[in-house]
Design brief:
alpha/beta; Rossmann fold; 2 domains; seven-stranded mixed sheet; 10 helices; binds adenosine-5'-triphosphate; binds 6-O-phosphono-beta-D-fructofuranose; binds magnesium ion; 6-phosphofructokinase activity; ATP-binding; cytoplasm; transferase
């Protein structure tokens, strides 16, 4: 079915991830070949909802020339925010308090006023929930999945994840040599609020001795035992990789800042917590490092550039075919689409019975729980 599109908008929302510029470039190149105009909204939807806050032009024309040479660059040329959900938009009151307002209908009207026929929304689980809400209000929308956390449902992988894992793995590699030389325990805290994909993959690739995931509440004594077993075998250093959302059996996540109006909770500090407990339990010298936003920065890997390009081109193809209210996905080697309603606001956790977790256990990596006998190296 012909979609009669002349002009589309692009938005990047949530935490930035390597590959966003490659996706933007792909959408613009593919759309231009169909004769469509592309307009990029700055800083999530703030370019339309709060244009005065944007330092640059709130809505920028995206041409083949303006996306030239951006595919290998980190970040997003459009800017992004994880604090501007249009359906729960934070509005400051006269008394200084902040309350949430539903500005979804107003946003759809702003699209119409600007003659924007459709939206390509590039983001994570939160962005897909917003995209679904706008679709329900009558806007033509296709979602493109990105996030370093890889926690979006119904797609095998999001772009950003591969680059984050590659960098985290390099960090773990580097920490091995210093930990080994100093006979220390080194704890590496990665991002990953509610899903431990980055910690699991970087820990596996980097040869960590313990990996702590949000999906497996851990017993610090089990981790200390694993360290002691290594010491007894003459391996005097240990590397522990912990996702920021990992937590002990008997307490919750370490929260830096509680959730507030228009913003999610901020996690951080589990690395330092584990460092202190392991030092006390083993008597060994222990240090922790937080990789944090370093995982989001820098250029996308070749894999992420290709997936981002394929997603961007597929989003245009999908709109051209008259589809709306869907997200493009990676399904094996193929690109497919799923209804936004099936991914909106959902989190894809690490399945405890997946082959990577099973392999970690078979290699003797401590996952912080009472693993089958014989585990540990
Ligand atoms: N286009 C947007 N404009 C403004 N705010 C947005 C937009 N997209 C997402 N947000 C906000 O950011 C939050 C997180 O979005 P999303 O889940 O897409 O990001 P993410 O990639 O998973 O990263 P993170 O959750 O860490 O921010 C959303 O709940 C919402 O409040
Ligand atoms: O510090 P910020 O930018 O608010 O976001 C941090 C969050 O972003 C994510 O990296 C996802 O992009 C989470 O893992 C992390 O908790
Ligand atoms: Mg998210």
């Amino acid at each position: 079915m012909e979609a009669h599109i002349r002009r589309i908008a692009l938005v990047t929302g949530g935490g930035d991830a390597p590959g966003l510029n490659a996706a933007i470039r792909a959408v613009v190149l593919a759309a231009s070949r169909l004769g469509w105009e592309c307009h990029g909204i700055r800083d999530g939807f703030n370019g339309l909802l709060a244009p005065a806050q944007c330092l640059d032009e709130p809505v920028m024309a995206l041409t083949v020339q303006s996306v030239h040479g951006i595919g290998h660059l980190g970040g997003t040329i459009l800017g992004s925010t994880n604090r501007g959900n249009p359906m729960r938009y934070p509005v400051r009151q006269d008394d200084g308090t902040v309350s949430e307002r539903d500005r979804g209908g107003e946003l759809v009207d702003l699209f119409r006023q600007r003659g924007l026929d459709a939206l390509v929304m590039i983001g994570g689980d939160g962005s897909m929930a917003i995209a679904d809400g706008l679709h329900r209000r009558g806007l033509r929308v296709v979602g493109v999945p990105k996030t370093i956390d890889n926690d979006l449902d119904r797609t095998q992988q999001t772009f950003g994840f591969d680059s984050a894992v590659a960098f985290a793995t390099e960090c773990v590699d580097r920490l091995h040599t210093t930990a080994d030389s100093q006979h220390r325990i080194l704890v590496v805290e990665t991002m990953g609020r509610y899903a431990g994909w980055i910690a699991l993959h970087a820990g596996m690739a980097g040869g960590a001795h313990a990996i702590l995931l949000p999906e497996i509440p851990f017993d610090i004594d089990v981790v200390a035992d694993a360290v002691r077993r290594r010491d007894a075998l003459g391996w005097r250093h240990s590397i522990v990789v912990a996702a920021e959302g990992a937590h002990p059996l008997d307490s919750g996540r370490v929260v830096l800042e509680a959730a507030g109006t228009g913003r999610a909770e901020r996690l951080g500090g589990i690395g330092a917590w584990v460092e202190a407990r392991l030092a006390a339990a083993t008597g060994k010298d222990c240090r922790s490092v937080v990789l944090g936003h370093l995982l989001r920065g820098g250029p996308p890997s070749a894999f992420d550039r290709i997936v981002a390009a394929r997603f961007g081109a597929a989003a245009v193809r999908t709109l051209a075919a008259g589809e709306s209210g869907v997200m493009v996905t990676l399904a094996g080697q193929a690109i497919a689409t799923v209804p936004l309603a099936e991914v909106a606001g959902r989190t894809r956790h690490v399945p405890l019975d997946c082959d990577t977790v099973r392999t970690a256990r078979e290699l003797g990596i401590c996952l912080g729980d009472r693993a089958p006998a014989g585990a540990g190296r």
